[in-house]
Amino acid sequence: MRFSGLRVLTEGLTGNRGWRPHWRDPDPRPEYDIVIIGGGGHGLSTAYYLAREHGLSNIAVLEKGYIGGGNVGRNTTIVRANYGLPGNSEFYSHSLKLWEGLEQELNYNVMMSQRGVLNLCHSDGQRDAFARRANAMVNQGDDAILLDRAGVRRLVPYLDFDNIRFPIYGGLYHPRGGTARHDAVAWGYARGADGRGVDIVQNCEVTGIDIDNGRVTGVQTSRGAIRAKKVGIVVAGRSGQVAAMAGMRLPVESHILQAFVTEGLKPVIDHVVTFGMGHFYISQSDKGGLVFGGDLDFYASYAQRGNLPMQEHVMEAAMTLMPVIGKARVLRSWGGIMDMSPDGSPIIDRTHIDGLYLNCGWCYGGFKAVPASGNCFAHLIAQDRPHPAATRFRLDRFRTGVGLMDEEGTGAQHNLH
Ligand SMILES: Cc1cc2nc3c(=O)[nH]c(=O)nc-3n(C[C@H](O)[C@H](O)[C@H](O)COP(=O)(O)OP(=O)(O)OC[C@H]3O[C@@H](n4cnc5c(N)ncnc54)[C@H](O)[C@@H]3O)c2cc1C
Q1: Within-domain flag for 7
Q2: Does residue 263 share a domain with residue 156?
Q3: Residue 179 in contact with ligand 1 by CB distance below 6 A
Q4: What is the pTM of this model?
Q5: Which of 308, 340, 372 delimits the end of a domain?
Q6: Same domain, yes or no, for 322 and 362?
Q7: How many domains does the chain divide into?
Q8: Same structural domain, 322 and 334
Q9: 235 lines ligand 1 (CB under 6 A)
């Protein structure tokens, strides 16, 4: 226990000089048992569970920038388990259960707030699809409530229910969904992994992957060569680039997703509300800012910033759903690089190179996956067999076409939907 009310008070009165860094800042050693490339949410949670559940500690997480500088610190923080297809259902259900115990597990306030996620529907067809999804969620053991128009109005009276193009028919409500503070999740896992002996090495870019006779032997980095028996690639939007260092061409395209936050307002939105037809979703942060976003910028890019046409589109969708938002002033917008897979579902798998493992394809929904992704990837790396909750996230489904999980029904090129 490093925090207490008394400690916060004492530090506040004495210039906050007594706090210790949450994790060490070690130089990389010449050799590790396991090297994790990428210090985002997924890389840090992988290292944490490798140490916590598999008793391994000779591990380095190599991060080219700083912890929390990637998507884990750029997302809109929505956590949910409202998937419909086998493969995704059990995985996200596993993740939500880990989320529910995460603060106790890490002894860190990740501000997990199960305020409920409401998906709106605007046609009979969409309502039918939500009914199917709700049944799948309930069958998986998660919670789902199908709301009619009056039920939605009771929850979120401030929406435009009679919009000519998108009248609200009802909604799918998922009470256990909600939000968590994104960078606190990275910091909590970083502290937990560090405390179990993992070296978290920041400002250390991997520039090459060493392979000898079909087996990985280490990595080249901006801070020298590091030998390793096993290497995990967990670099989200940079997956294609890093896998190419091992001669692999991934079925993944990198696209930009933007988000926006307004000035702080008094509490107005109690839930996460999504308007899928208009490509818009919104929640309110604990600081009061309305946090919202929309669709991808429709071009492949490694820039961590988006463009004006999508900003205009998102604002338009916001005004369509919730005209009152026109009174709020937008403070900031930013972008992150999404690793879009063709079926919109992720990959957690071995590669054809011994000792080299791959975790990617999270598209725009990988924050809610952080606990389960790390938990399942650690299991795969430590035991060389998939975790029961992640057996279907196979890389070869894109070669064979068998086992695709096209959750949104957008066809074979999800990245271009
Ligand atoms: C605007 C926006 C909104 C989103 N909203 C949500 C949401 O509400 N809910 C949800 O579930 N998901 C959401 N997402 C998606 C989610 O943020 C990502 O899927 C997830 O964070 C990706 O995993 P990560 O945290 O490991 O990625 P990152 O934090 O990007 O981690 C990857 C790390 O790898 C590092 N790296 C890359 N190349 C190298 C290299 N060569 N050497 C060393 N390190 C390297 C990067 O610097 C980076 O820190 C959103 C994303 C964005 C951008």
Answers
A1: no
A2: yes
A3: no
A4: 0.96
A5: 340
A6: no
A7: 2
A8: yes
A9: yes
pLDDT tens readout for residues 212-252: 999 999 999 999 999 999 999 999 999 999 999 999 999 99
- pLDDT the model gives residue 408: 80
Per-residue model confidence (pLDDT) at position 4: 85
Q: Is residue 236 in contact with ligand 1, taking CB distance under 6 Å?
A: yes
pLDDT, mean over the chain: 95
Is there a domain that residue 92 lies in?
no
- Spatial separation of the C-alpha atoms in residues 175 and 155, rounded to whole Å: 12
- 39 CA distance to ligand 1 centroid (A)? 9
Ordered alpha helix ranges (H), 101-238: 102-106, 124-140, 149-155, 182-195
165 and 38 within one domain = no
The alpha carbon of 137 is separated from its chain's Cα centroid by a whole number of angstroms, namely 20
| CA atoms within 13 Å, Cβ hemisphere of 289 | 15
Q: Ligand 1: does its nearest atom lie under 6 Å from the Cβ of 64? A: yes
Asked if 235 and 298 sit in the same domain, the reply is no
Å from CA of 298 to ligand 1 middle: 18
Q: Which domain holds residue 299?
A: 113-177+253-340
| Identity of the residue numbered 386 | P
Q: Say what the pLDDT of residue 396 is.
A: 96
Q: Which atom of ligand 1 is nearest to the CA of 77?
A: 8
| 190 φ/ψ angles, rounded to the nearest 5 degrees | -60, -45
Segments of the chain scoring below 50 in pLDDT: none
257 & 165 share domain: yes
User: For 222-314, where are the E strands, in sequence order?
Assistant: 224-233, 253-264, 272-275, 280-284, 289-300
| Residue 289 forms part of a structural domain | yes
What is the pLDDT, as a whole number, of residue 73? 96
Span from the CA of 123 to the centroid of ligand 1 (angstroms): 33
Taking the CA of residue 334 as reference, the ligand 1 atom at the shortest distance is 1
82 lines ligand 1 (CB under 6 A): no
Beta bridge partners of 330: 262
Of all helices (H) and strands (E), which one includes residue 309?
helix 308-321
> Ligand 1, from 62, 71, 219: best to mutate by most atoms within 8 Å of Cβ?
71
Nearest CA among 330, 121, 141, 402 for reference residue 394: 402
Nearest residue (CA) to ligand 1, atom 48: 70
Looking at the domain assignment, is residue 2 inside a domain? no
The CATH number assigned to the domain holding 276 equals 3.30.9.10
